[in-house]
Design a protein that fits this description.
Helix 6 packs antiparallel against helix 8. By secondary structure, the chain is of the alpha/beta class.
């Protein structure tokens, strides 16, 4: 009998990964707080779209609303629970699903930010696994409809990186990686914290800027001003990551040292970084927006405090200046509070 899997938060990432696992024949139950989304999936299936025909399909899925979670007690206990909610909801979501886990069941944080310690505090470190989704650019664009806006990573770019907090490769990390290969390339990593901070750096460079300016990913990285801010955000985050002792991976396809050198005035490094940005811009659809850009457009709370805010907080702890990240936090919060309209002028002072 296969493992019983639940995905708590069937939005962009949870819906994409969970839908493709279900498409691959796995026993997956999607759990979400949006009634229209749940009802549509149960009636019509989950529509998954991408930039190639092989990704596009409609998958029959099992979906339940948050208020129906107690019904899990009537069936087999949960072997693997993917938590895919917003980072500020991690604690309650983990507490809710923990009680339905099998004796050897565990929780996988498939989220932005650095949430493994929160999951471990609630469920226990022995029940905690982390997973990074690198350059996936998915969006829940309507009830029962998830769209991916960048090409599949394949073996050229490993999208899902699964790791243990202690850094050793385990059978369950390999198992989760195998499950996620239903959606795209995946591996087990012995560098969870380095992978996490590297992804956090990418999000710090992109998400808040799109939220504050209203720009798509393609627009944001094409304009000289916002590209420059993005690079400075990344350089600050990299320096903080180094101060924390993390072994950083490539940052959006660019070596960390090269990105910092580009910001520090190395013309050759800057030319190479600009060329890589141009390549990525060419691969994105016009509609691609990072998660915080999507949140702002939908009137939802962003994760700015847990991304750029975390960079700033850890910078204060380690003595690394992070003025650009701090300024972006304030800019995004002004837009969130309705004190400013999302527009490039909001970040003109940064």
């Amino acid at each position: 009998m296969g493992k019983k899997i639940v995905v708590l938060g069937a939005g962009a990432i949870g819906g994409y990964a969970g839908g493709h696992m279900a498409r691959g024949g796995e026993d997956v139950t999607l759990i979400d707080p949006w009634p229209e989304h749940v009802n549509y999936m149960n009636k019509h299936g989950l529509r998954l779209d991408g930039v190639t025909t092989q990704e596009c399909c409609v998958v029959p899925v099992k979906a339940i609303h948050l208020t129906e979670v107690q019904a899990l007690a009537k069936g087999r206990p949960v072997d693997i629970a993917f938590v895919c909610v917003k980072s500020y909801d991690t604690e309650w979501a983990t507490a809710m699903i923990k009680q339905y886990l099998a004796p050897n069941g565990f929780v996988v944080s498939l989220q932005n930010c650095m949430n493994e310690e929160t999951v471990a505090r609630v469920a226990g470190p022995e029940r905690t696994l982390g997973c990074i989704a690198s350059t996936i650019a998915a969006e829940l664009i309507g009830p029962g409809h998830v769209q991916r806006n960048v090409p599949l990573g394949g073996e050229e770019h490993i999208v899902f990186r699964v790791g243990e907090m202690h850094g050793r490769i385990t059978e369950r990390a390999l198992e989760v990686a195998a499950l996620l290969r239903n959606a795209d390339s995946a591996k087990a990593t012995n560098n969870l914290w380095g992978e996490r901070w590297s992804k956090l750096t990418v999000n710090a460079m992109r998400n808040g800027l799109s939220a504050a300016t209203g720009l798509s990913g393609k627009q944001r990285d094409s304009l000289p001003k916002t590209r420059d801010i993005s690079l400075r955000l990344g350089a600050e985050a990299i320096r903080v990551g180094w101060a924390l002792g993390y072994r950083l991976e490539k940052i959006a396809g660019v070596g960390a040292e090269k990105l910092v050198a580009a910001v520090d005035g190395d013309k050759k490094a800057r030319a190479e970084v600009d060329a890589d940005f141009d390549r990525q811009v060419a691969q994105r659809s016009d509609d691609q927006r990072p998660s915080m850009g999507q949140d702002m457009r939908k009137g939802r709370r962003t994760e700015i405090e847990l991304i750029n805010g975390l960079v700033a907080a850890k910078g204060d702890e380690t003595g690394i200046p992070t003025p650009v990240n701090k300024a972006l936090v304030q800019a995004v919060k002004r837009v969130e509070r309705g004190e400013a309209t999302a527009d490039p002028d909001v970040v003109a002072h940064i």
